[in-house]
Write a structure and sequence with these properties.
849 residues, paz domain, Rossmann fold, 11-stranded mixed beta sheet, 23 helices, RNA binding, Argonaute_N
């Protein structure tokens, strides 16, 4: 039998029947009446004497809006424009070239040349086609409906953030200071979503992190804790230089004079001593050399207060001192959130909304103030009618698995359990005859170590009560680690300062790659007031890192179906470089279970071209983890349940076909290999391939008064599954909310079954997915996605941070973030990065927790 051959999306199975039926409220709004008019699609081309100027979304919307106002006899219906190349009308208009009108002062100029707009009809959709194609998932029709619905808010909200994420409309009046020059803004998300029950509109609350608007010097002083502007009189050799350059690159600014009327420019770089920068100014007779300081004094009567401070430059090379610059509000943060201070906590406090508050804000979002479904001309002209009340759909609550420990079991109906009250012992405790504690802080950590030791023993671990203790600093970290390596400890506990990324990296590289010794890092701010709960959580991590098993779920799908034949559960993910990070690869990670409880995992990881959707070396990686499975049990799995994270719907078929082909290549290699004839694969495993989605905006809310199905946090109880009405008309999919959630509104995970050779029913798939959310080793609660997917995600981050040998990378690591090529992936030497990638030999210990 030939397995792992993709023949299109798996056929939808009948909805599941397991669990108690109930109704839940969703953040979707039914399209009660579909568009009744025909629609005409036009290509938009803005030109100046045949050339194409750069026109942003904001300006594009204004040009098209003014054009329609200036020629009402031509534009007899309002067009829905995406700000780029597409506009849709509910009536046919003549194709042709039109003079653009920017404002009441006359034709707009781009470098002194008149702008023209060329409109060319490219398609027509009848009213019947719109409904049919939308339900079939035809992206061009769905895009048209998205643009029609977004047109009025597009005109209302034109912040830079909206230019980057046109599905979210951020509002400045709803913001909160985070510190370090950053703000959190709340916005409204909307998207057209075809479902089995018809077209719906998904509306949600979204939070964006923005740069603080206003004068640029204040932003820099807040971000880099600078007390005096004179401290910005720095050169390229300053440690702050590269940090400021990276922080400012791509930021939109204006500058004095006339900053209100000036068109925003993008910062392309920074220069030292901007006021003293010499440029060539056009003169009446001949060009003259002039400093920036002199230019502003003579031309604009502006005396620079800090001529020796840094300045910014745009792509044209224009240099502007920072004291004249203003940052446009509403620009999304491009890089990672700073890890210092309490920014993360402030952001979570702002973003997390209790379910009933979130639902109320969503209802308010469709009001005339924001999305205006009931009043927008564009919606009315289309003939669409949208329900202004959120939909209620049918759901079920799955029975929760019991959690088995050493000598005891516990019910998990609320999605969490306690290891200390009553005291429970882990399912398979590890041993640590000798261990080492290293403190990189000056505070007394003895009480924490003593309490941790008590928790380790209470959980059943056999550990020495006399660990070696070492006091260290960041400067002597490696000599200290080298010294304790000779003692061959079972694990090393490292107590770090609050901000100690460099020490953590050193400890992890030493333990994972150099010595194969498990390490557990704890920050002093956590240790200082540590309680039993925190120490128990640390102890659970240590047990898993030593090779122990903390607990196993007891459910029929796990104890019967999963163990009937050898089965491997696989989690796969790709971790991409952060926004703005260049010259660095993506990391693909694979984890595979090697025991009947799906609690022990082996792994494989590879570097690959940045931001590629598919796993490029999947065949080699699958071969590695299949060999590990055989090495432990002397058989290969007969079934593989492959959970894939991080694939967008538009890439489903492409990625599934490519990756199943590579999985099949791994099978063929193992079936034909001659190095170990006794280890040949004699029977090809059957494969089920499931995409797990987290980045979506569907939410479920308990119905008012339904106390039985409402958790303490106000969310739906864990185990909620929706597999009809709300699901796709094209794919075999379901939503599962497996966690109760501690704060905010819980997000369900979205499962799409693209390939199934194991004839799994909806009930089997849903029960297995839910059970696998209960085996995450360092949690005493169910998690939001199946554990192997969670592990793959963690492994991507861990490998990317700690497993590349900087000595091998050399200049490739030093030049990180410096490239200016239009295709950064072309500058990444993937072969070099994979050469620098070490392989941790601690499998199947969960060293990456």
């Amino acid at each position: 039998m030939t397995t792992a051959v993709y023949r299109g999306p798996a056929r939808r199975q009948e909805p599941g029947r397991e669990g108690a039926p109930l109704g839940v409220v969703t953040n979707t709004f039914k399209v009660l009446r579909v568009p009744r008019a025909d629609w005409y699609h036009y290509d938009v081309f803005v030109k100046t004497d045949g050339k194409t100027p750069t026109i942003g979304r904001r300006r594009g919307h204004q040009l098209i809006y003014n054009l329609q106002l200036s020629q009402p006899q031509v534009f007899t219906s309002q067009g829905a424009y995406d700000g780029k190349k597409n506009i849709y009308f509910s009536r046919s208009i003549p194709s042709g070239v039109y003079d653009a009108v920017e404002d009441e002062r006359g034709p707009p100029q781009a470098g002194g040349v008149k702008l023209q707009i060329k409109l060319t009809q490219v398609a027509k959709f009848s009213a019947q086609d719109v409904v049919k194609y939308a339900q079939e998932g035809k992206q061009d029709v769905i895009n048209m409906l998205q643009i029609v619905l977004r047109q009025l808010p597009n005109i209302k909200f034109h912040t830079p953030a909206h230019q980057r994420n046109y599905r979210v409309f951020y509002m400045e009046e709803n913001k909160s200071e985070l510190g370090l020059g950053l703000e959190a803004w709340r916005g409204i998300f909307q998207s057209v979503r075809p479902t089995l029950a018809g077209l719906t509109i998904n509306v949600d609350i979204s939070t964006g992190v923005m740069y603080r608007g206003g004068d640029l010097p204040t932003l820099l002083m807040q971000r880099f804790d600078i007390r005096n502007l004179r401290h910005l009189e720095l050169g390229k050799d300053s440690p702050l230089w590269s940090k400021i350059r990276q922080f400012l690159r791509g930021l939109l600014i204006t500058w004095r004079p006339n900053q209100e009327r000036r068109r925003p420019e993008v910062i392309d770089g920074i220069v030292e001593r901007a006021g003293l920068f010499v440029f060539e100014k056009k003169g009446e007779v001949a060009p003259e050399q002039m400093t920036v300081e002199t230019y502003y004094k003579q031309t604009h009567n502006i005396q620079l207060a800090y001529p020796r401070s840094i300045g910014v430059k745009n792509k044209k090379g224009t240099v502007v001192p920072i004291e004249l610059c203003f940052v446009l509000p509403g620009q999304l943060l491009k890089g990672k959130l700073p890890e210092v201070g309490d920014i993360s906590r402030k952001l979570l406090d702002f973003a997390n909304r209790k379910p009933h508050l979130r639902l109320n804000e969503i209802k308010a979002g469709i009001s005339p103030k924001t999305l205006s479904y009931g009043e927008a001309n564009f919606v009315r002209e289309s003939g669409m009618q949208i329900d202004l009340e959120p939909s209620t759909v049918g759901a079920r609550r799955l029975p929760a698995p019991r959690i088995r420990f050493h000598g005891s079991e516990v019910e998990t109906n609320t999605g969490s359990w306690n290891m200390a009250r009553p005291q429970r012992m882990v399912f398979q405790p590890a041993t640590a005859p000798h261990w080492v504690a290293i403190s990189f802080v000056q505070q007394d950590v003895t009480p924490f170590i003593r309490l941790l030791l008590q928790c380790l023993r209470a959980l059943g671990l056999t550990v020495s009560d006399n660990p070696t203790f070492q006091q260290a600093t960041g400067q002597n970290a490696m000599p200290t680690l080298s010294k304790v390596a000779g003692e061959k400890p079972s694990f090393v506990l490292a107590i770090l300062p609050e901000s100690a990324a460099e020490i953590r990296t050193l400890v992890k590289q030493w333990g994972d790659m150099m010595q194969t010794i498990p390490t557990q890092c704890c920050r002093i701010d956590k240790c200082r007031n540590a309680n039993n709960q925190y120490c128990n959580n640390v102890a659970l991590k240590i047990n898993a890192k030593l090779g122990g098993v903390n607990s196993v779920p007891q459910a029929p799908v796990m104890s019967e179906w999963l163990v009937r034949v050898p089965t491997m559960v696989v989690g796969a993910d790709i971790g991409h470089p952060g926004p703005g990070v260049q010259n660095r690869p993506s990391v693909a990670a694979l984890v595979g279970s090697v025991d009947q409880h799906a609690s022990r995992y082996t792994y494989a990881a590879r570097a690959q071209k940045p931001r590629q959707e598919r796993i490029e070396d999947l065949a080699v990686m699958m071969t590695e983890i299949l060999k590990d499975f055989w090495g432990r049990s002397r058989v290969y799995p007969e079934r593989i349940i492959f959970f894939r994270d991080g694939v967008s719907e538009g890439e489903f078929d492409k990625v599934a076909q490519a990756e199943l082909e590579q999985i099949r290549s791994a099978f063929n290699y193992l079936a034909a290999q001659e190095e170990e004839p006794h280890a040949k694969m004699k029977k090809m495993p059957t494969v089920t391939y499931i995409v797990v989605g987290k980045r979506h905006h569907i939410r479920f809310f308990p119905r008012q008064g339904d106390q039985m199905n409402t958790s303490k946090s106000g969310n739906c109880q864990p185990g909620l599954v929706v597999d009809s009405e709300m699901t796709s008309p094209i794919y075999f999919d379901y939503f599962l909310q497996s966690q109760a959630g501690l704060q905010g509104t819980s997000r369900p995970s979205h499962y799409t079954v693209l390939h199934d050779e194991n004839s799994m029913t909806s009930d089997m798939l849903q029960a297995l997915s839910f059970a696998l959310c209960h085996v995450y080793a360092s949690a005493t609660s169910s998690v939001s996605i199946p554990t192997p997917v969670y592990y793959a995600d963690k492994l991507c981050a861990h490998v990317g941070a700690y497993h590349f040998n900087p000595g091998v990378l050399g200049s490739a690591l030093a030049s990180e973030g410096a490239t200016t090529t239009s295709n950064p992936e072309d500058s990444v030497d993937v072969a070099l990065w994979n050469k620098a990638l070490g392989r941790c030999k601690m499998r199947p210990k969960l060293f990456f927790l």
